[in-house]
């Protein structure tokens, strides 16, 4: 009975109640602790130091929050979230226990008050941040959308309970016991997070864990640049900043007047606790009964005006009646409206921004803008109170000034809000020269409706793809009408777009599409019915899992696999394991195999189920003769993000037919795959035909982080990887001009590559010199001929790498100078026309700066004018002793050169080379290690 009520009320399914309750309890305890320690420490701070010290507290909080966020973000990336969370919870708990002891013995110094005032702010930032990172790891996007409302209720309950509990404990027993209770609640969080980790996160692959942990997206530029580039985001950031400044000014006035009215710190803590909880109760009531109605009636912009207008009116009241009860009203408006009406309106106001940009920008606004605004408020208060010696009442005038700016910015945001919608739709409008004049004054919405009603299939799909993140009510009927479109692809995308509208929209029309003979359309329709209609999950699976039509039963099984991956109860209830096993057995028989699409669907189902037992089915079909099935097996491997498939995917990346699909599959592993690529490069354990494609995988992430990884690959020992990395960087810059490319770093890499090129020339010259010195020897035996062949083979490899190195230099030059100029120069340098080569050299000579010219130009002159002649008059060539260049090649070159050098050393049969070879016994590449042992054995006569 209780389960049914919870399911209907909150949308929780069997198997989700326990994990959701644990998450809800976790955030309940965190917010409860915050509402215990915050009013208690604030009361102590204001009571002992006076409200005049609050501005310094604001400044310190701003500085420490920014610094802590930077270091904490790095720590989160490097270490386990579980270990960091448990460690931080223990540290905060111990800190609060120490505070309770300090209060007991009454040894409260000023620096201790500042320390704990900062600690409360850090606890609020770190503990809540850890919770939401954990929540994003525990739940996928679909689950999060459905469950975060229920889980978030725990935070609201904690906000209500914590403050009232503080008021009760402090008034009855004193503040030291309230702090002790908070420390105990923090320790209670540890077994909860351990249980959550064991239930959900421990089962994930390391790649999925990292993806969820960092909430990865294809963000391309820094958050600040994103915000400054967009008027919409700039206004939103400014509004957030102004609202924080006003909140701090209000908080200062409220604390100052409360401190003057209530002299006892315990009574003050009780006062703060009571009102903080009361404000949370008001916020809850507004959220449940008022917010949606006001947003529907007034719209986003008008709803955003309610908070500043409310503060303005109550501030005017304070100027007339400068007493504490008016400040309680102002604080109440700020505290309750901000967490309900204003928060919902802000979330909607950022909706026209694309999802990946929205997530990145909002995180920056919530942390950085909030911290900076807090610091500004601190500076303002120090100036007003310390320098100008103004009364606290005069701060109200400053608040009214900022509120006026706030209101102006909201009106500016309103215009930017509609412009963002307009721009995003216009991006998809395909221009038609013949109709240009006729549609000159056609509005954006009319154009969008025209495309949806009479556009071609590519035009409609393009527009729907652009609208994925937006809920445009004026286009709702046009999108519903697409469910009758003849194209199944259009119908599929139209259903996906309906997810943006109210639950149950066009559900009967969508249900009618499940009889279509198309796997994608049937699955999308069933997925919509399961997640966006009022059908019960049990009813859904009872109705469709055993359907006589295999299109429907297969799609329903895929829905079950997705839902049951983290819900074992659901998997057991509907026998997911045995159903997949039956499908596998059936499709492996000639009689059971009906459609290759059914195999593709089963591959996807297995991937989403996460049942390791069936992963060999994916492995088998990665080697299928049918390219359609192989591509779906590749996609399935990517969905699993399992380590076992990486080697096979790397093999498939060499086949042109599968390359694009394989790159996308590897990208699904998240940024963790770039770390794997770096490890593979360091181990030099890659085939030549594989390694040339890996930088392309990295570049697919189209982010600043991807650039950092490619810059690391530019330092690879392997010249092919360096060249392909330079090529990938060049393509990334062309596709994403917003990305930041540091020319200084590229100049440094050009100098490094030039040094490599020069060293290669020196080594080739030295080997040829060695051959020449031994060419006059008579009566050569078989070993001498073998040595000659080995040396010549090494020269061939080095000459091939010399050519690749020169290409790398020019690719890197294209990242420093105009790429088209460099391309023209390169073509001219290798032209068969002598005059073209000389003109290209002259052009390059004028283009390069002095530092690069001195390093690069002689090498190019040597290659072009002297045509690589080692008796060069342009380039000073150094002849190196054989043991020196062999030692250098072993240390600084890739696997291919190492193997050639090992073979040469082996046939030279000189024991003096043993120390050079010894380090390779520990090399990560098995082939290099084997040949190192073999060479050492041959040189030391172990087998003789």
Word description of this protein:
The longest helix is centred in the C-terminal third of the chain and has 35 residues, at 782-816. Residues 430-442 have low confidence and may be disordered. The chain has 44 helices and no strands. The chain has 944 residues and is mainly alpha-helical.
Q: Could you list the spans in which at least 5 consecutive residues all have pLDDT below 50?
A: 430-442
What is the overall number of helices?
A: 44
DSSP strand tally: 0
The overall average pLDDT, rounded, is 85
Estimated structural class? mainly alpha
**Principal-axis shape:** globular
**For the CA atoms, what is the radius of gyration?**
34 Å
Helix percent band: over 70%
- Alpha-carbon distance between the two ends: 83 Å
**How can the largest sheet be summarized?**
none
SSE blueprint and pairings:
Layout: H1 2-10, H2 17-49, H3 54-78, H4 81-105, H5 110-138, H6 141-172, H7 175-199, H8 206-214, H9 223-229, H10 231-261, H11 265-289, H12 291-320, H13 324-349, H14 355-387, H15 395-426, H16 444-454, H17 457-466, H18 476-481, H19 488-498, H20 507-512, H21 519-532, H22 537-544, H23 550-564, H24 568-573, H25 576-587, H26 596-609, H27 615-621, H28 627-640, H29 646-652, H30 656-667, H31 672-683, H32 688-691, H33 694-699, H34 704-713, H35 719-735, H36 743-773, H37 782-816, H38 819-829, H39 834-847, H40 850-864, H41 882-892, H42 895-908, H43 914-917, H44 926-939
